[in-house]
Amino acid sequence: MAKAVFQSFDEKADPAHGASRVAALRAELVRRGLDGFVIPRTDEHQNEYVAPAYERLAWLTGFTGSWGLAIVLTKEAAIFVDGRYTVQVREQVDVAVFAPQHLIDAPPEGWLEKRLKPGQKLGYDPNLHTHDGVKRLERACTAAGATLVPTDANLVDAIWTERPAPPIEPVTLHPLEYAGEPASAKLDRVRARLAELGDAALVITDPHAMAWTFNIRGGDVSHTPLPLGYAIVPREGRPSLYLEACKLSNEVRSTLEDMADVRDPGQLDRSLQSLGAAKLKVRFDAATASRRLVAVVEKAGGTPDVGVCPVALLKAVKNGAEIEGSRAAHRRDGAAMANFLAWFAREAPRGGQTEISAVEALEGFRRDTGALADVSFPSISGAGPNSAIPHYRVTERSNRPIEPGIFLIDSGGQYRDGTTDITRTMAVGEPTAEMRDRFTRVLQGHIAIATAVFPKGTSGAQLDSFARRPLWEAGLDFDHGTGHGIGSYLSVHEGPQRLSKLGTTPLEPGMMLSNEPGYYKGGAFGIRIENLILVEPRDIPGAEREMYGFETLSFTPIDLALVEPSLLTDAELDWLNAYHAKVRAIIGPMVGGDTAVWLDQATRPISR
């Protein structure tokens, strides 16, 4: 079996170093006259995935989750995580050094208010905190009589003697056949939005927004084809791009210089100072702009306008080429998934397979397409009780054998024409009645989203409960959102659109999201069924309002062994059979041999 190329299973967490590294950090606090320091799990762009050079939280604490924050004071320390990581954090962190805290139940600000003393100084790296994030910390410090102090360098960097070098991967051009719109047209739309907002310029701090606007991609971040850098788009005049020169080939530089001034990132502050000195109103992205950059414009005399980045909504609504590219990517990915599931159905009952071998097999089938650029995130491959951990990451140490029960795999591929994300839950051996009941309720929620029809202006928050009702009726629920946005050969998690209690952005045709309700019985098994969906107009005779619905983009069989037909309504049963007929029609011609035989059986019509 081929080994995984795009992900590793090394155990990166090592809680054994926690005590010595915190002791070194506390010595640095004393040297700088500080009483504490805040360490977020992010880089200066607030990326979900960060390069090794910016994994400061993991290096200090051992925690490797995608979101977290630590606070180290002179006498105690804490690490804050959300509900996804409450189990993981205790496995990876020395809890005698860092007290795990739930982000919602015990937010960092409240924790600080209770522990800081009057006159104390709390340090933070202004490159790693947003404008609003700093305001929250300032309020906490003020309430305690303490002071929040920006540092001129990151204190973790000062003690991290073997810190990896920052990434300098090549920037590539994203072809028009995939982008669907030239960068010049995108810049015109951004300028039009700036005029509506009354802003003189936009500072692009989100690399996803920069990549989309200028039709470029890169490799500075794992699993997401991002170049790290910045851009400034004035309402009038040429934009500026701030990229390391060593990342640019002659061809790429020439293409970019046709539409923008290409500058060294070290010149960004000078450009921001010029905007401020001209007394201009400058737009910053509230989600990704660091406090330090906002302060440069403010100090120079400008007016920072911190809010939603205009590019975010433009990027979220996919054009025709991006939609067709996603459809092609999902057909290709669906064939790889069919090959994998046929392999799994054959090999899992024989024994000898593990969570890691399943990941390696699936990546191999995706690589066999000849089009895989990367996986879109490290595959979540959970057997038995590990399937009940929504964001589980398998390592050599945690790797479980695949045995009778439940197996869940959440994975995706990065293809030049689209990004995929799909979850399937399979039974190994005969599932219990409880497993079938829970799986079918999750399926009913999935179908409710897939078949939803809703008026223009509806947000994801209004639809989120559709996926939960079948579980609620049995006194059950799940603790994550029902769906997130998807990029086009960009991030597998894209905003602002989402199916979630927090999803307030109205859904528009062209937006792509995931549809992934789940159920998790801690220590036993977990279930999730995920397809990607596309918002599209719905023509309803006699409708008095503009109506929308979803097109399902993913084509992969749903395990019928876990379905309890008696729980399904006639409409739900019809949806499942129609979906499987479409999977068979689209994927069938793309596979052969044992997979074709398996696919016919896996997509057979069922009845009560």
TrEMBL record:
Residue ranges annotated for the Creatinase N-terminal domain, each copy included: 21-153
Protein name in UniProt: Aminopeptidase
Family stated for the protein in its record: Belongs to the peptidase M24B family.
InterPro entries, per database record: Creatin/AminoP/Spt16_N, Creatinase/aminopeptidase-like, Creatinase_N, Pept_M24, Pept_M24B, Peptidase_M24_C, X-Pro_aminopeptidase_P
Superkingdom classification of source: Bacteria
Keywords recorded for this protein, A-Z: Aminopeptidase, Hydrolase, Metal-binding, Protease
Span of domain Peptidase M24: 326-536
Keyword flag 4Fe-4S: no
A Pfam entry, by short name: Peptidase_M24_C
